[in-house]
Amino acid sequence: MRRFALLAMLLTLALILGIVERAIPMDVMIPGVRLGLPNALILLALYLFSFRDALVLVVLKCVMTALLAGTFVSFFYSISGSLLSFFVMFGSLRLARARVSPVGVSITGAVFHNLGQLLAACAVLGSVYVFSYLPVLLVSGAVTGLLVGLAVKYTMPYARRHVRPGRPPAEGAPKEGPPKEEENKMRNGS
Description:
Blueprint: H1 2-23, H2 26-29, H3 37-48, H4 51-69, H5 72-96, H6 102-125, H7 134-162, H8 180-188
Helix pairs in contact: 1-3, 1-4, 3-4, 3-7, 4-5, 5-6, 6-7
């Protein structure tokens, strides 16, 4: 029940951040670029929950965002980028384990999210010319991925405390816990 409540909270926060993100006029500066704030919660879910839980969160976020503020085409772009990003981030966690930080996973995910959306645009528009926008999206993905990754890196120790203390990390996630000093306080109940 606690896991379900925490996942529902992550989904709700992702939807709220998505709405806030739409209010930020990034498209005026660089068309198609967003900060990727909801992706911070997906990345947290990858580290804190199982593969299945995180995947369900990704799909529900895309579906609910489309229902609240989108169209079928925006859903198609969103689900394409989100699923490609999710599988690449999960794969990097599985393969690299403790050698990759949340920042590295986030940058990788952001870049592949943009690539997934370009592949979807290529399919919808029937043109490979959309890939001329790839350099802009690679740079913006690296920058936004860095910011999201840093947010997750510094949030993770606090988030781990609320996901069953003592529970091992999700399969493939680096095994890092709270600092030893805080861990001893938690064990001693002080």
